[in-house]
Amino acid sequence: MQILNKKESTLLFLNRIHKLSDNFNSKIIIHFLSILIFILLFASTNKIMAQKDGSVSGSGSSGTNVGTTAAAFLEIGVGARAQAMGGAFTAITQDATTMYWNTAGIGRLSGFEATFSHIDWILDTNYDYFGIATSINEMFSVGANVTIFGVGEQPVRTVQLVDGTGEFYTAQDVAIGVSLALNLTDRFSFGINAKFINQRIWHSSATGFAIDVGAIYLTQFKGLQLGFSISNFGTDMQMSGRDLLNVVDPDVINEGVDNIPVNYETGSFALPLLFRFGVSYQLILSSISSDITFAVDLLKPNNDQESVNLGMEYLIFDTFALRAGYRSLFLDENTGGLSLGVGLILSPSDSQFAVIVDYAYIDLGLLNAVHNFGLNLRF
Asked: Can you list the domains of the chain with their CATH numbers?
């Protein structure tokens, strides 16, 4: 009887060892595949960027791509928290504004979140962003977002009537997107955001479509995350409308050939394609109930040189946050610079509901500074 018990114990022990080894091997395989997918996505992104760089630079002769793309409002960052951290937000998760920076980030949401941010931008323009995101289950998260940039009514002026004709015009840019994020493993997330883009000034407009894709990998080193994203991969945009209709006299010397209707054709421009690669590290200071997050982003746009964004956040008692960042590092003649911000998290004890109020001060150099206000609701 004792011999039988020993045999059974030995078989049971070996069976457990076998199961543990299987689980260990499967985890290694999953982590390896996650890293492999991350690298492949990274490599394919570089090829896309190279192709787009060639197509854009070929349209100009000045040797620079600055000012050669459409829908520049897509390059304005979203969210006071991210802006205060210098735009270094590619490897940050659990925030609805990540639909803009890296859609994979919403895959780590634990519930529902709504976000709104407003910026009094330069030259009396306004920039507003609204987004909602929620987790469906442990694997899927979905979201929707709207970006609006524009200026209020402006008087129509001509060379003859410099004080105005009595008419008024408006200009507005809009982007509407839907997002999906998948947690392929407990460490690897992938996301995609598809969006409709429209630019309008008075009676003329341009329309385009684009997608943003991204991925986030939570490394085995606690608190260390890697992320990459490619934004605004889509169609070219071309203005058209009745403001481009006119009548001309093609032969001013001879009579009888005048008032010929014409339609001016504008050029088409690519969207501001942008590749980001980011690293973030969260250091938890349990002794004083706080944590510090450091973030670095490498940016490669199709309309400018490469640059680096830096950011940090110091969170105290999960209630008050101090933030600082610096954008466009190593960029020649940049208009970016220092950014500062604060955040306040109001949440009842033992409740998932939270109200988050954020503020960011963004230095734009010669263009002075702008102020970004944000409000988040979590359930």
From this structure: 2-378 (2.40.160.40)
